[in-house]
Amino acid sequence: MGMKKYILQLGLAVIFMTSFQVFAQEYATHAVKEGETLQSISQQYRVTPYSILQANKEIKSASDVKPNTILVIPLKGPIVQKEKPKEEEQEQEEIKPLGFTRHRVRRKETLFGLTQKYEITEEQLKRYNRDLYSEPLKKGMVLQIPKFPEMDPDDERELDFETYTVQPKETRWSIAHKYGISVDSLLVLNPDLSKTSNYLAAGQELKLPRPKGDSLKEQQVDLFTSYTVPPKMTLYSLGKEYGVPSDSIVKLNPEIMKQGGLKEGMVIRLPKKRDNTGVVNTDNFIFYEVKPKQNIFRLTQNLKISREELFRLNPDLENGLKAGMVLKLPKEKAAGLQVKNALVLDRVNLVDSINVENKPKLVFMLPFRLDRVEVNNKEKTESQIKTRRDMALSLGFYSGALVALDSIKKMGVSVDVKTYDTELSQAKVKEILFRENLQGVNAIIGPIASGALSEVAVVAATKNIPVIAPVASDSQLSHSNVFFSVPKEEILREKMLSYVKKIHKNENVIIIADSTHQVAHDSILSKFPAAQIAKIIDNKSLHLDRFLLKLSETKENWVFLETDQPNMISSVTSILNSAITEDVKVRMFTTSYNNNAYEDDAVSNTHLSNLRFTYPSFYRETGNDFFTRAYEKRYNGLSPDRYAVRGFDVTYDILLKLAHKNNLFETSKIIGQTEYTGNSFDYINDWSSGYFNRACYIMEYDSLQIKEVKLDDLKSNL
Length: 718
Prior knowledge:
This protein is an alpha/beta fold.
């Protein structure tokens, strides 16, 4: 294909579509929390108590609705009236607003800011402004703000928080499950918790919402028991034993204050001890929440478990499979499933979940440098592309993106695309932003340069538009609307060290690190405290004699090489190859892979293969797959480079997510890891700093080929 034709491919026409009807979900699941009743739950979902009983045959009456019970809530279908049980009549009706005030949305205002300003919840705001369920907050919107009556002190107590002490073997998910909140909510309440690790220490204190009904107000008589106070019992010890605050015990038994405190022999009322049988044990099990329309056969296939074992661990299945059930699975199954905080995540098939009624509006901002391209001078243009990384990256990336747009078009999804050449100039980016109207845009891919990316992110944030960084893993500034598609260096390093730690038995570990890789050096040493440290001369080469003395003849030698210098890589790999004998076995790893350094002409692929060189990567080698064939067909036999593969994967991922739900922020809450030709995406929201990709691969040289280390390979090494 001629270069002129290649450049002209940068123009793109609007794609048209067909449509079909998509049906809304008919059920929700609800984990019953302390203090909740059948009536309060039915009010929350605006359904009748009888319809909930009908959908949960194992629940015979309102008294069977207990904490930790998982209920299926029918959201659609006929509503059948039923006489309320007596205990339900005691429940308060849903609080109605006294009136409303109007609010015109200003620039940069957020839902969270409005809820704080007017002291209401986000659900209350959306309930009286239903457009907010389907579209983001926009400048100029006029909202109805409900005014609610002031709560008395006892009611305010129920919105209070308590301090929770982490018990041994508890996880974030098990604690969040116990309190009926999400892990994301747990992180918001406890901002000091790490966003990149799930670690919790026994004894650590967390801020959590006080369970509803903790004030012991208006609870049923059958929830209490008589208690005779033994000698030396204190209010603190009693409260801890029964799981209620000391002041709640005093409120329930005012005679305690009249008699000057808790006295031996005193008979008081206490709530029955909480039933801990429903507390989730994440030490031995992982868990899966059943979705609507699933069946046993499909579950056993997806969860990689036999029917017999599934029923043995979950005897309630004998009564039938129900949406919302939480199933126990053996913990060892976690190796083959996607698990987050002990909960198995569904791998959503986005291709089967698109809604062609969604019409994504996409913008590309890339430095094509067309201002410097002479289309009629083929040789000069080819030379520019070969020597200028920004041009090669942009053109390669966009050529793959065009294939993604072709693919989504064939699925019937219409995409409105605009493409801008940033010319690698921040001034040009400002000009584009000033000139063009971004209203209604669903996502912006690019720019590449950090300064230009920040410029776009700031403007896009005012319109609630996500920005996808094609090759960046981080930014010096915090941008809550940026999706960084390349994993951070520390994510890659942790992935690599976790893998090596799992397969390590008794091998001799040696660290070779230059001065610019001190963080990698320290990280390896923290995992392998007995590792030997090789001496580096002038930050360039090994002290050969001292290094050879560190090699073991009785154990396999595992050498970590941490450097970006091609000459040093070449020298070390040559030395390690020469050291291999029948008695001396050597394997090489790195936690800091730089493809420009390891793919330099000075580095021997044969040496890397002989050493079974293993490294972490956000990118894997591609084969003759669907994308490669489509690319070669579109570009007359031209094979895609890694930039083209990345362009396809990033764009296809964004388009499928927007076709599934036309809001990338919302889709990211429900979609786990996605995987395409050469890249995977698993974004975690770091709140103020953006969305960071955690998905990466372990790659290994084997017989002069680079292969991905699969989970099955890991098992075989254990």
